[in-house]
Design goal:
646 residues; alpha+beta; Ribosomal Protein S5, domain 2; Rossmann fold; 3 domains; five-stranded mixed sheet; globular
Amino acid sequence: MEELEKALENVPEKQYEDEQIQVLEGLEAVRKRPGMYIGTTSIRGLHHLVYEIVDNSIDEAMAGHCDKITVTLNKDGSVSIQDNGRGVPAGINAKTGTPTLEVVFLVLHAGGKFGGGGYKISGGLHGVGASVVNALSEWLEVENCHNGKMYTERFEKGAVARPFACVGDAPDGRSGLFVRFMPDATIFEEVHFDYETLLTRLREQAFLNAGIRIVFRDEREDEVKEADLYYEGGIKQFVEHINGNKHANMIHDSIIYMKAEKGDITAEVAMQYNDTYTETIVTFANNMATIDGGTHEIGFKNALTKVTNNYARKLGFLKDSDANLKSEDTREGLTAVVSVKLPDAQFESQTKAKLGNSEIRTIVDSIVTEKLSEFYEENPDVAKAIIYKACEASRVREEARKARELARRKGVFGGSALPIKLADCQDRRTEYTELYLVEGDSAGGSAKDGRDSRFQAILPLRGKVLNVEKSRRDKVYGNESLIPIIQALGCGIGEEFSTEKLRYGKIIIMADADVDGSHIQVLLLTFFFRFMRQLIEDGHIYLAKPPLYKITKGKIERYAYSDEERDRIFEEIGGGQAERYKGLGEMDKEQLWETTMNPLTRTLIKVEIEDAMKCDEIFSLLMGDKVEPRREFIERNAKFVKNLDI
């Protein structure tokens, strides 16, 4: 680390001259810096191309001109999106002197959502969809059926390859836009679309736009997959879908649904309580997931807390001397979808993760206060069940507070208390430090001996980690398997959590490459997801990837991290013997350092949350109480598992 710092200090500063100022024409800027427009060139960015084109079709649907969208994954690796909307106007754009269709696919920030009354409400992540997709595609073809005629054009890497032309009457009176594109393999890290990821997003769009049919086909294999996504019930069915995937028991059968319109603004809320200890609130603005919430979520939570407290007192659950239920108490076990649609959505970040329109807070607060109060009046038994659960959550929260206070008095969480088994590092700068959570004392011993103590800390894990999915909050604070981890990290937990107090920049889970090791990984990830989720969101959690095999032939020693790599090494060196590692404890300190801990040679897997709702569903399924859904999941996915030890 010191050598790296010294090396950087000796790098000469580059000269900054006039000739270094570049002017990028047309879509060249997109191809040069794709991350600026789609966030990343990983598979997430690849899928984003599909979302941008689909969002344009959704805009047509929200404007009342489209009710069917078909998305197809083609055998050649391309994707096609077709809608039955109005199509793109077929004339010449007055400003550019070029066909309007060409403007849409070649000019950034061009389209009906940028003023002029094309769309009152529109989604799309950046509003640059069609042109960016075109720029990042090897080729893109368009068939545009508008006012009874069909117009076509082909582009290659963002440039016109076959000019705009009218090819005659639209077949079968067809209307709408058909776009087919091949992502550019020289730009993206991979160009194979994931069916399940796209299905989740398209299903979400169908839920949010009741009455729209989205047909999703995967024709890449001999056996064609097709999903017909149509939900007349809209977000009510969305809540049913989320709760169904939780495999939990419902506190009440009926979905609580409310909707209000004010001018061009529409707000919808659907909610239902289950018997779990976690909440799932997903919010949307103009069909875009607002993962950081915003004014619509604030309005919903405020109204929910207010109404629940009012009825808790009215029904006698709370006495005059009792403190109010806190907002978190009223949300335990809640699944809710909040969706707003508005003409001039203001977001607090480029990724549209947080809605900022102040008027939305008032509208959502008002509708939830009115409609939820009416629901409680008309359904007193349901109201009692919900309020009873909230009061129980309040009691457990108080027990958890007492457990924290007791732990603090014992020096468990506060001050300089550190776990006895922690082998700490010397450096205190979080941009350099790493904490290895190691399965077992044997591997922990090798890791301590083999580490670089300047920046690597080691904490051997004590037995099986608590399954927090089945545990209430008060049980977590006193658990002997979790206390050392909480102590070592130093950032607190629950209400006291603060990343500013985090002692290590990387938290690396290092477990055996077998079933038990995988179980420990999932238990720890469940804990972090439920109680320290920001650590994952901020990129602090990693999985170490130890080798599966040590391959030797004479004096040659190689390590393989998969069966495929083992076979490839056999071919390269002409045979050998392969030793299968059963656990980290079998490696000596040199081997463990070389294969799993040396920053120059190791492989780390960064844990990221691409779809928080999907993560919530998986953790609930794998770590929850219901056995049958877990068995079905394992049977369904067993074919994807490699290197399984029984």
